[in-house]
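#struct-queue
[09:14] JT: dropping the first one here, sequence first, then the C-alpha cells:
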Amino acid sequence: MNQFYGRGVDFFEREWVKEQRGYYVNEFKYQLENTNPLLPSTTTFNVDQGKGFMRITAEHEHKFAYGKYDKGIYLRLFAGWLPYYDDADAYVPFLFNGITSTGYFSKDYVYDELLFGRNEQSGLLSQQVFLRDAQLKTLYNGGIAENWLTSVGVSADVPGPVPFQLYVDAAVYDDPIDEGVTISYSAGVSIVVLKDAFEVYIPLLESNDIRNSLTYEDRNFLQRISFLLDLNKIAPRRIKDGFFEQ
C-alpha cells in the first residue's frame, strides 16, 4: 500500500505538509461455512502480518431463521489479539468499527473497502461505517485496543414485511488509555434495505464512554445516525472491477 496523508505543522495557522509512506501486509485467511438454510453459519480465522505487527482474529456468525419472510436472529462473536505490535506503519489496532480516517490513521489499512468519504470529518459522507472488528454500529472514534479485544453482537428482524432490526453490540477490551479492561456497548434500531450491504443504524442506548465523547458533543441526534453501504456485497466483482477500470 502507498499512502498519501497530511501531517499537521501548526494547528492554529492551519499549516500542514503532504507526506507519503508505503507498507505491506501479508494475509492468511481460512473460512468454514454451514449452508443449512435454517441455521447458516460462517467461521473465519485471519492472520495479518507486516512491518512491526502481527494481527490474529477469529469471527463466528450464526443465523437462526424464522418466519415466512426469511427473518432471523443473528449472532456474531469476535476475538482479536496483537501478539506483536511495535512501531507498525499500518494502523492495525482493534477498533469498534470502520469509520472515516484521519491523517495517516487509516481505519481500512488494506484499502479493500469502497468508501465515498474515506477522510470526511463532517457531513453525510462522514457517517458511513464499514463492518470491522467489534462492529459497534456507532460513529464513536475511540475504542482502540492495542493488545486484545472481544465482542458479541445480536440483531433480530422485526416480524412481518418491514425492513427493521433491533440490535445490540458489546465489546470488552484492554484499554491503552485507561490501562484496564473496559466494556462498551451500543444498541438501537436499524433499517435494512439490503442485508449487510445497505443499512441505516439509529443508536438509542450507548455506554458512558460513547455518550461522553466528541461524537455526542459535536453531533446532534441525526448526525449520530450511521449507515453501511458495501458495494462489494451488492455486486462484488462486477462493481469493483468497473470502478478500477475507469
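[09:21] JT: and here's the second one, same format:
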Amino acid sequence: MFLSFRSTRIILLPGLLLTFSGCMISPLATRTAAFSTAATATAAQTTSAYQLVNQAYYDAQLAMLAANYDPATFKPDLIAPYLPEKDLAVRTAVLNGLTQYATLLAEVSGNQPVTDMETQIKASGAALVKLQQDDFKAFKISPTEQHIAVTAVTALGNVLIERDRARALPGILDKMDQPIHDICTILQSDIGTVDKPGLANALHLEYNNQIAYEQRFIQQNGASMSADEKRAEIETLPKLVVAQQQADKTLAATAKSLGELAAAHAALTQTKTQKDAPAFKLKLAELEQDAQTINGFYQSSSK
C-alpha cells in the first residue's frame, strides 16, 4: 500500500508542477511579453529611420559633387552626415533605452531572469540619466518639450537601473506609462512630416536635391554621353522619385508606429486586473501591422 501511494505521488507531481507553473504566467505577463516583442521591433525600425536619413543626405552630397565637381573648390570636410555624431548618439541612447525597457518587461513578466542582459540594461539606464536638456537642442522640439524629454528618459533610465522583479510588473507599467508616452511623442516630433521641420522634411528635400543634381548632370554632360550612358542617367530620375515616395511613406509609418507604441503601452497598463483585454489586443495588432508595413518599406528602400 505504501509503495502504491508513493508511486501515485511520483506520477501526480509533474502534473501538479505544470499546473502551478501555468498559473504563475498571468494574463498580464503574457500580454506584456507580446508588447515587449512589438516594442523592440518599433525601436529598431526608428533607429533605421535615422540611418536612412543620414544615408540619403550623404548620397545627395555625392550627387552634388558629381554634378559640380571642381578640384579647386572641392572640400572633403564639407561632406558630413545630416545628424552629427553627438546628436545621433542621443537619439540612439533614447531608442536603446526603449529596447532595454522592452527587454526588462520580457524578463520580469517571465519566470526566469535573463541574467546575461543585466549589465547591458543597467548601462543603458545609466546613459539615459546622464542626458541633459542641452542634449535635446538638436531635436525639432521646443524648450518645454526638451524638458519633458529629460524627465521622461530619466524616469526610463531609473527603471532600468532599479530592475524591479515580476511582482512589481503592474507598478512598473504605471510608473512608466507617461514617460513612454512622452518619449514616443518627442521622437514623433523629431521625425516630423514632409511639410514640417524634422527628419521627414529633411529627407524629402535631400531627394529633391538629388533629382535636381541628376537633371543638371544630364544637361551639362548629355552631349558627350553615348546613347546607353545617357539612357542610364535618365533612368535614374524615376528611380529617385520612387525612392523619395518610399522614404516619405517609411518615415510617416515610423512616426505612426511610435504613436501606436504609446497607445499599446497605455492599453496594457489598463489591463492589470483584466483576464481578457480586447482593447489592448486591438492596439497590439495595429502596432504589429505597422511593423510589417515598415519592414516592407525598408526592404524596398534597401534595393
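[09:30] RK: nice, looked through the second one.
[09:31] RK: Residues 40-302 form one domain.
[09:31] JT: good to know. Residues 1-24 have pLDDT under 50 and may be disordered.
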